[in-house]
Amino acid sequence: MRLPIALLSCLALAGCAGPLPKPDPDMAWVDLHAQVGDTFMADRLDGKRVSDGRYFQVSPGRHTLEASYEYEVARGGLAFSEPQYIRCRMEVEHEFQAGERYLFEAYSLGFTPVVRLKDSQGQVLARAERSLCL
Questions:
Q1: pLDDT given at position 79
Q2: 47-55 contact pairs (CB < 8 A, 24+)
Q3: Are the CB atoms for 127 and 116 separated by under 8 Å?
Q4: Residue 16: pLDDT band with limits 50, 70, 90
Q5: Alpha-carbon span 48 to 29, nearest angstrom
Q6: What is the pLDDT of residues 72-88, one digit of tens each?
Q7: Where are the alpha helices (DSSP H) in the chain?
Q8: What are the CA-CA distances from residue 107 to residues 1, 15, 23, 31, 97 (Å)?
Q9: Are 38 and 69 within 8 A, CB to CB?
Q10: How many beta carbons lie within 10 A of that of residue 96, not counting itself?
């Protein structure tokens, strides 16, 4: 079970392996970050699919960002049990400013995903809502 997930992750990342574009100073830039071993990818901006899952670049104003977050949790606390993977769709809405850089970060506390949006000074601006977890 672990091999197919690892293979799919590698294939998904291969399409995103190129350099990031330069941020447009007239737009807001949103980096995505997750714990080592987790996957956190941009999915939709205002309901429309994004072309590169590594970041969001948005015009000034209110926008809804949707990202998928996949993380591993141990089942039953047994050392030799197969890990369980949880995938959640996370959504945050915020008023973005031109030229600003933001961080959309994700981590898990056991079975609970914690996803929040921060400004360039590290202040938490918004907490993401879980729309679906499988």
A1: 62
A2: 52/16, 52/20, 53/12, 53/16, 54/16, 54/20, 55/20, 55/29, 55/30, 55/31
A3: yes
A4: low
A5: 17
A6: 987 765 666 778 899 99
A7: 2-14
A8: 23, 24, 25, 15, 25
A9: yes
A10: 21
Measured CA to CA, the distance from residue 82 to residue 9 in angstroms comes to 18
Pair 62, 32: CB distance under 8 Å: no
Cα separations in angstroms, 89 against 19, 76, 120: 26, 24, 24
54 pLDDT higher than 80: yes
Q: What pLDDT does residue 96 have? A: 98
Residue whose token pair is 């933001």: 102
pLDDT tens-place string over residues 93-107: 999 999 999 999 999
The pairing of beta strand 101-109 with beta strand 28-34: parallel
Residue 24: CB atoms within 10 Å: 13
pLDDT at 8 over 50: no
